[in-house]
Amino acid sequence: MSIEELAVLLGWCTVVNFGILMLTMIMWTVLRKPVQSLHTKMSGLSADELNKIFYQCMGQFKTLWILFNLTPYLVIRIFMLGAAT
């Protein structure tokens, strides 16, 4: 796999994972009450505990997305720009 192919792959991974993050946050904002009632019944957690867990998971997902998708993509793109000059 060439460096250009890796940049394309990481670029698409970044876009897809950002889309998942945004879709999840939008759905949580729009459908909070039905989702909370379903998950509180299934897990026995309170709504406050569920909110805490959700935001922790989204924070971890965002951190991992930045660490494993966005940062390597930007580094490769910067490297490719420097190599072209």
Could you describe the 3D structure shown?
The chain is an all-alpha fold. It has helices at residues 3-30, 32-43, 47-84. The chain is built from three helices and no strands. It has one domain (3-84). 92% of the residues lie in helices and 0% in strands.
Task: Report a brief summary of the structure.
This protein is an all-alpha fold.
Write the layout of secondary structure elements.
Elements: H1 3-30, H2 32-43, H3 47-84
Helix pairs in contact: 1-3
Name some characteristics of this structure:
elongated; 85 residues; mainly alpha
Query: How would you classify the helix and strand content by structural class?
Result: mainly alpha
Kindly report the average pLDDT value. 95
Q: Tally the beta strands.
A: 0
**What is the number of helices?**
3
Sheet with the most strands? none
Please indicate the count of domains. Answer: 1
**SSE order, as H and E?**
HHH
* Termini gap: 22 Å
